[in-house]
Design goal:
- The structure is a homodimer of 360-residue chains.
- Chain A starts with a strand and ends in a 7-residue tail after the last helix.
- Chain A has 360 residues and is of the alpha/beta class.
- In chain A, helix 2 links the parallel strand 2 and strand 3.
- In chain A, the strands form three sheets. A five-stranded mixed beta barrel of chain A has the order 6-9-7-8-10. In chain A, strands 12-13-14-15 form a four-stranded mixed sheet, with no helix packed on it. In chain A, strands 5-11 form a two-stranded antiparallel ribbon.
- Chains A and B meet through strand 13, strand 14, strand 15 and helix 11 of A and strand 13, strand 14, strand 15 and helix 11 of B.
- Strand 13 of chain A pairs parallel with strand 15 of chain B, so a sheet runs across the interface.
Amino acid sequence: MHKTALIMAGGRGERFWPRSRKNLPKQFLSLTDDGKTMIQLTTERLLPIVAMEDIYIVTNRDYLPLIREQLPELPSENIICEPVGRNTAPCIALGAAHIAKKYGDEDAVMMVLPSDHLVKYSSLYQTTLRDACEVAQKGENLVTIGITPDYPETGYGYIKFVNEINDEDGRAFRVDSFTEKPDLEKAKEYLASDDYLWNSGMFLWKLSTIIRKYEELLPEIYDAMQKIKAAIGTPSQEQLIEELFPKLPSISIDYGIMEKAENIYTIPGTFGWDDVGSWLALERIKKSNEFGNIVDGNIVTINTSNCIIQGTEKLIATVGLKDLVIVDTKDATLICDRDHTADIKKVLENLKICNRNEYL
Amino acid sequence: MHKTALIMAGGRGERFWPRSRKNLPKQFLSLTDDGKTMIQLTTERLLPIVAMEDIYIVTNRDYLPLIREQLPELPSENIICEPVGRNTAPCIALGAAHIAKKYGDEDAVMMVLPSDHLVKYSSLYQTTLRDACEVAQKGENLVTIGITPDYPETGYGYIKFVNEINDEDGRAFRVDSFTEKPDLEKAKEYLASDDYLWNSGMFLWKLSTIIRKYEELLPEIYDAMQKIKAAIGTPSQEQLIEELFPKLPSISIDYGIMEKAENIYTIPGTFGWDDVGSWLALERIKKSNEFGNIVDGNIVTINTSNCIIQGTEKLIATVGLKDLVIVDTKDATLICDRDHTADIKKVLENLKICNRNEYL
């Protein structure tokens, strides 16, 4: 079985400001103690199942230098640039066109993976993806990795599955429906019912399957994909993508295909997945000290507890604090109550209004 | 009447860290909106009553360049350097020796003033000092300026006075006793009784009077003062001060003379005195915005109230905060709960232990 992977790395998330910036989004940051960036970790954990030359990264062209720098061993033709962001359905179509053009092998399995999530247990992750590849190889199955929920999270979409097993080993369940982010009451119900998984945004299918689904469900994107595929490797490639891509509808793969297609299966993942959605995620992925503080940098704390303090060489001294997130960078310092991290985007809105783009 | 002033500027206070440092203590900082430093303001408000050439500053020799820079019009022979800090009694004796040597005029009045306090109503201050000079000129009076208390402060010493008026205009009251910093209950009693004033550390006397008091009550310091006075202007001046001064007992003028002498008078001051004892003082001396924040620098606040934020060019963004003091400098940032400003010194202790003297 020929396995390929498409890593989606075009995100411009604001939740790790001021460490993340428009020109350095989360996937290019190192948030773990090993010093590796999110996209480096994502690639590294794929290598036991996909060869480096079969890993593709689709991103905004602004990030091309960052990807070359952080992944020097990735063939440069495997970096696919979107002229603009157009949500996941056009993004994946662009990737599929490139992969199909190169291999002509439409029975190859294509994994689609986010670039900015973390996995605690890599070998479990690899086993899950191998299993998912096998399910994806059969018929016209579309497979998504669901995450067994730990708690009633209201920030994720959920996958409802039915106890109808697809493969002989009992690994994949038929998906009943995808649901939007629930309120807390619903999320609690979902957690208690054992019929729901978190939607992790990881998908697997044969190239031929997904191309047929685009033809059937998103014909406009399919047409563009076919034209782009034909032009790849010719002098008109770049100009054609530049012309066609921005006109495509901005639509997610979930909404455009997964919620409408048949033969959707999910494999529950229990590999310590984390979407690292805010600074508070550091409490799950880094060790806290005896006072419950997560501390990196040149820090002196006096009577300070339950704080996340991310500094640099500059001295940060804290006195009598609790429950704060403090992030220092060369040109900006954030001090945020832990219950208000969702409001970091208001800082960025304020800066935008004032045209202070150097901080975005 | 010949009026002279001795400004004491040797303090090494730590309460304005990280803005104040060992090599830049509070008296050399600008904490008001006018951009002037504390010692500049102290000098400026004296000029309507004392000529610049009659103002003396006694300080640690490390601060000589700062004083020359901040007060370029002060004659350089009016800067008196202590080789080491030895509390106020030796400090004032050293100043008195210099002033007595220059003028020979022992009937001159000498005002002794801190360098790092603020006054809101300068003309009231000047009137009070002029009145005090008149009282000080009579007999062997020692005069101290007391501050009419606003609230039961436990951080100051108090002066108990009796309703026995010294001068015909009814301005000066006889001092009954000086008291140590009280506990809150005592402070409330003092406030209610109307018999107590805050001890501001401002003193006035004739040169001849204070020299006689040293002879009587602090003979060891008196002897050194006489030897130093004789040597001033000779080649041995510096060496003699270097030799004698460090051996003097470290004793305050309050304890050494004021609490023991007769003829102590106080004039109540109502000129908006502030000792600017911690970062919280900024709430009294600067304007707060509609959210109760005192903000200087490049600051974005979201849902932030009752905070003191002192920045520089670097952006500071605050989200969901209240009741904090945030002070940014080039190499260090302090974030401190407003009820814990007294613990800033623990940061400095920690830095000392770790030999990180660059931050002290």
